[in-house]
Amino acid sequence: MNDADYVIIGAGVAGLSAAYAPKKRGATVLVLEAQDHVGGRTWSGQLEGAEVDWGGEWIGEGQPRIYALIKELGLRTFPTFDTGKKILELRGQLSTYIGTIPWMAPWKLIQIQLAIWIIDAWAKGLDMALPWNHRNAPEWDTKTLESIRSRFMWSADARATMDAAIRTIFGSESGELSLLHMLAYVRSAGSMNNLISTEAGFQHERIAGGAQSVSLAMAKAVGEEHVRLSQPVSAIVQDASGVTVTSASGQSYRAKRAIVAVPVPLGSQISFSPRLPALRQQLMQRAYMGGAVKCFVRYENAFWREKGFSGEAASGDGPVSVTFDQCSEDGKTACMLAFIGGKFARTWHRYAPDERKQIVIERLAKYFGPEARKPIAYAELDWCGEQFIGGAPIAIFPTGTLSIHGASLREPIGRIHWAGTETARQCMGFIEGAVESGQRAADEVLSAD
Description:
The chain is an alpha/beta fold and 449 residues long. It is built from 15 helices and 23 strands. 33% of the residues lie in helices and 22% in strands. The protein starts with 5 loop residues before the first strand and ends with a helix. The model has no long low-confidence stretch (mean pLDDT 96).
C-alpha cells in the first residue's frame, strides 16, 4: 500500500507548488524536506523588528504564476523602495545616477548598451524550453561570457559595471559563466533589463510577511501532517509499480511517483536505483551552486532616504556587489541589505565575523555617509555554508554542460520527475520559475496516472 500518490523531495517553493496542485485535485501527497523549515532558498526572519529575507525575495512584472498564487493564498505584495539617487562605485570612485543604467562617459555607456542589445538579440533566438537545440548552442557553450564580451567591451569600467550585476544575478564571475547558460537565462526572463531593473523589472515588489510566507501558506494548504521536516532523502528506488523513497534516518515511503525538487547539484547526493542515465548523472555532477551572502544592517532611521538616496548602490570593486533599501512597507523600520556574490562570497568565510561586519558597514558609510557606522544590529547568511542548499542564488552550468546535458534537465526518468527553479522554462532562477517548475512537474505526474 502506498503512503501517498506522490512523494515530493524538497519543501521549497518548487516542491510545495508540485504538491499543492495535486492536493487540490484530490491526490495524496507527501513532502520530505531535509531542513527544519520549509521555503528552500526563500527564508524569512526578523532583525531587531525588521522583516528580512535571507534568501530570494523579489517578484515583478511578467511573473503571472507567483502573483496568482499570492492572491490565491491570501497574501499581498508592496513596491520595492526605488525613489532617489543611486550610486555606482568603480576603482574607488563614486558617482550618482537616476534610473537603471548608471551615468559614465558616453563611450562607456555605449559599450554597456551594446552588450545588452547583443545579449538580448542572441537570447531572443533561443527556444525558451530547449535552448540547447539552437544551431549555435554548441559553440556558445564552449565560451564564457567574459571571452565574448571582451570583443565589444574594451572599457574596464564597463566590464566592472556588468560584473556587479552578474555576481548578483548568478552568484558567479563572468569568466566562469557559460555564454549559453547566460543567454538561456536571459531568454527565460525576457530581457536583460528585466533582470537588472527594479521599476518594471523583476525586483519591482516584495512579499508582505517575507517570501517564505508563500511556502508556509502552501504547506498549510497541503496539510502540515503531509510535510515532514528534517528528512533528508538518501535513496530512491523505482520499479514497475512505483517508487520507494528512503530518508537518511532509514524511514521509507512508498508512492506511485516521485518529484525531486532540490537544487540540481544536490541531486547527486541521492542514490538512485536503477542508476540514472549518464546524461542526468553528469548534469548533477557538473552543476554547482553560485556564491551569495546576504548581509542586513538595522538602523534607527533610514538616513539615506533623508539624504535623497534610494539605497541602491552597485560596486564593480567588491566585495559588496549591490545594496538595497530593506525598510518596512511604511518606511518606519529602517534596514539596509548588502549583497555579496561570486568570488567574494566564496571567500567570505576567510574573514572573522567582526571583520565581515566592519567591511560591510564601512562600504555603507562610504556610499551613504557616517551615519552608517551606527547600526543597532547586524546579521548575515552565507548560502555557501547551508548544507542542504550549497549556495545561491542558482545552480551554475559551466561550459560544455547545457549543450550536452540540457535535454536531461526536466525530462522524466521512469517514475521520477524533476522540479526546481533551474528547470523552469520561464523566469529561471526566480520564485516565479520555482512555481512554474513545480506546476509543470505536477501536471506531468497527474497526466501520467
